[in-house]
Amino acid sequence: MQSILNTQYFNEYFTNGFIDTGVSLPDGLLEDMKNHYKNVAEVRNDYPQYFTKNEHQAYLEGKITGSLFSLLPGLANKMVTKLYSKSYNKAIHLEQTFIEKVCSHLLQQNCQRFFKTRFIVASYDIYLGNDHNHRSFIDIHSDIPNFHHFYETENDITVYIPLIDVNEDNGGRLAILPESKCKLKVPGNVLLRLFEDAFLNIPAYLDENGYIDSDKIDATAMKNFINGAPYKALMENYKISTNFVRDYYADKFIKNDWQAGQVVLFNNKTFHAAETWRNPDYNREIYMIRLLPIYDAKIQLKKTLHGSQFNKYLIDTQTGSIQLYQDSVDLSKIPQQEKLKLRA
Ligand SMILES: [Fe+2]
């Protein structure tokens, strides 16, 4: 994270686990967002769609044995759907209606000063809604590196905005394990290296700029990669690290009271957990935007996820601007010297 954040803000992140931007959403925008998501069907939950390719087994360890997915995918999918519908009333990914509005507001308030790296992709957004009968993600975890976005890194930054107050009375706070309290972190960037090592030397999988286009990789090659020793070792590392943190660092997590509309930044690859929502009168509502720093990996961003286009916004922290692209941001057009070094 030292290469992503300017020193002062890196220190804040390192010590507290998050950066308080000091920015709140304007009241009108906050209301617009709540109304927008109120009108999305109650039962919509996009999480199970992430399981179709079977990469979240490690996360499910302890809830479902990983092998169930291979042996009985139909049953496993039903179990996953049940698990997630117990967690959230609504989990809505990739609406993207508010990415530009929220990011523009942050840039107007000079939030680009937090960043050392120049270009950042605003990849997709997530809305999570749950009442007090839904548990949300209260188990300690870090968001697992996966193949659905192909460009998640260990240094992703999440713009995290509670749309309601989270505090001792309401519950619903985000508990974070700051790096100052525990150095253990899953080395997600190794996945990009493994991906390059596996596919960059096969011309059929590359686009016209010589970047890996994940849509061109045939199913067997992908399966071999997933079942290969390096990827399995990474997943094993994820499981062991998560269990270790659950066993020995559970008392080191920090919870903070945040107000409706308050914008904070955190890294979803650090360990975190949601607090149970206690207020029976209204729902917990969280809005997030996933920001991806850009490395010099020769891996092109994916263009669609679950049928929606994404990865379309590019933030330039030098000019303080955000640009919308017709398709996903073309990483081959970003000057090499403006990218972070994957293998440095
Ligand atoms: Fe998470």
UniProtKB/TrEMBL annotation:
<dbReference type="InterPro" id="IPR008775">
    <property type="entry name" value="Phytyl_CoA_dOase-like"/>
</dbReference>
<keyword id="KW-0223">Dioxygenase</keyword>
<keyword id="KW-0560">Oxidoreductase</keyword>
<dbReference type="Pfam" id="PF05721">
    <property type="entry name" value="PhyH"/>
</dbReference>
<protein>
    <submittedName>
        <fullName>Phytanoyl-CoA dioxygenase PhyH</fullName>
    </submittedName>
</protein>
<dbReference type="GO" id="GO:0016706">
    <property type="term" value="F:2-oxoglutarate-dependent dioxygenase activity"/>
</dbReference>
